[in-house]
Design a protein that fits this description.
Number of strands: 19
Mean pLDDT: 79
Strand content: 15-25%
Distance between the termini: 68 Å
Radius of gyration: 26 Å
Helix content: 25-40%
Structural class: alpha+beta
Largest sheet: 7 strands, mixed
Order of helices and strands: EEEEEEEEHHHHHEHHEEEEEEHHEEEEHH
Shape: elongated
Amino acid sequence: MLTEVKVPAFPESVTDGVVAVWHKKPGDQVRRDETLVDIETDKVLFEVPAPADGVLVEVVQAEGATVTAGETLARVDEQREFAATVETPAAKPSSEEQTATVSAGAGAQRAGNGGTLAGPAARRLMVEHGLNAEDVAGSGQGGRILKEDVLRSVDEGVALRARNGSGEHAGSAQPEAWRLPSATDRPAVVTEERAQRRVPMTRLRARIAERLVEAQHTAAILTTFNEVNMQPVIDLRRRYRERFEAVHGVKLGFMSFFVRAAVEALRRYPMINASIEGEEIVYHGFYDIGIAVASPRGLVVPVLRDADRATMAEIERRIADYADRATAGTLTLEEIAGGTFTITNGGVFGSMLSTPIINPPQSAILGMHRIQERAMVENGTVLARPMMYLALSYDHRLIDGREAVLFLVAIKELLEDPARLLLEV
């Protein structure tokens, strides 16, 4: 009996997707709920599982095809025998044979597209960088390939190209244009090679580009700056960090302080939490705070719903969960849709100052930066203080400079006296 594998239903805001990677090919045996194919939309990556045990007999939509909800992707024959190896005592192999069999099986899985030894983020990175599974040494449980393993292999690309030139990894998928010439094949007259590589833009990257250009074209973006002395937050965090982790099971970071400070400041200046729809201003009576997260596929902004009702521990727990699932590519559309205000932290990458771009239809975004010790004058005395620059980009069509500056000053004051976050004063 043939069972069709169909494109799952897309949420309202998504109309189509692109077949990104097939992890099985016609003739391969599949198990129910095993991932067959990844579908990339402009927001998230869907994993489409096998509907039943059987054999994949036909792939209808090739990689790169644009598909819509309900379209047939492939067909699985459930009546074909699903082979399973059963070890019997009479045929039990020796320990050496078992080791060889396991190694061969793992190599076959790594060489193919089954993906049982690599997560979706790792598989996607391997495709983008032209790597085969055998080129990447997995450090996860059971030899599973992690995203970090792929990134490490990419960083070691020069060494890989050198080995390709000397005959190693002869079957590698690295393009010939990237092979590092050896001393024996250099021409008599050395010419500088200017290699190029073209790869299709992912749907997420294309959508990011579209939205950034849209923001620049439709909003009157202005940025105001301030600086905050992080010493009070650092002292409070140092004092209670171990106790906090022991009680709540999650680390106490800086982001929860900024989320709480942003919510309190938004309460005082509701225009910052508003948005423009046509010729109307929409004031939001809730606080859904987007947290910008870098992922292998690009920037995503999962949303902390009702952040005003969340405790510090809940905020930290949800942010950690979002970061992990952004890396794995398993965030849902509901988790990255909406939001009334966004916080982005370029400081984790070393940024000292930036002008973040607002995330339409939101009207403002707060940029955090690197904490740097600087000489500050306090009561006539020069002291070293851990300072952070803050940047607030806002839509000047809706928000006047006065509100923007006072909003940022409120965040500064709340962070420099964290007790005010608890007292809401």
